[in-house]
Amino acid sequence: MRAPDRPPAPGATREASGSSASSSSGAVHRIPTPPVRRATTVRAGRDRTFDVFVRELGAWWPVTPFSRGEGRVRDVRLERRAGGLVTEHWDDGTVHAWGELLAWDPPRGFTMAWRLTPEPTEVELRFLELGPSLTRVEVEHRGWERLSDEQLGAACALPEGYAGGSFDRGWGIVLDAFARRVGAA
């Protein structure tokens, strides 16, 4: 299940660049860039769902195209503590950091600084227990205001960047892969 798309803020207008608007005085003002929010629901308890996410990250994360090394990536690891790193490990032993855990609250969730964007953004994961064997996993990727208009439109793992919806589509792909892993585990 996916979170419903959120409508733009009332009165917001967007130009072709997707991030600025002109006022009646002709001045250009930057429109706030909303967080990317996605969710999935899995048939597993919260403890197990959280455990699969953090302990088996390298087994289910779609490294192609969502990593620096793609085919060279042999593992993705998350150090389970505040201040811990999230890293990808390549076949030649090279390690690349994706980010650092800012908050760690198992099994309710965690927040990390995401360093795969031109400027750091934040990703928060929440694990909500809906029943004994039903958990909703929510992702909020925020901090887009730190990026320039050019960076917001630049291609990333998927074409068109944030401005073109690639992060929204990307988190949907990631959560779908995770849901399949929980169902298979």
Could you list some keywords that capture this structure?
single chain, 185 residues, alpha+beta, Alpha-D-Glucose-1,6-Bisphosphate, Chain A, domain 4, two-stranded antiparallel ribbon, 4 helices
Examine the secondary-structure arrangement and name the CATH architecture: 2-Layer Sandwich
Amount of beta strand: 25-35%
**What multimeric state do the chains show?**
single chain
Shape: globular
Q: Report how far apart the termini are.
A: 19 Å
CATH topology: Alpha-D-Glucose-1,6-Bisphosphate, Chain A, domain 4
Mean pLDDT across every amino acid position: 85
| Count of discrete domains | 1
What would you report as the Rg, rounded to the nearest angstrom? 18 Å
CATH evolutionary superfamily: START domain
Name of the top-level CATH class: Alpha Beta
Strand order of the largest sheet: 3-9-8-7-6-5-4
Secondary structure layout:
Elements: E1 20-22, E2 28-30, E3 36-42, H1 46-55, H2 57-60, E4 73-78, E5 85-90, E6 95-105, E7 109-114, E8 121-131, E9 134-142, H3 149-153, H4 166-184
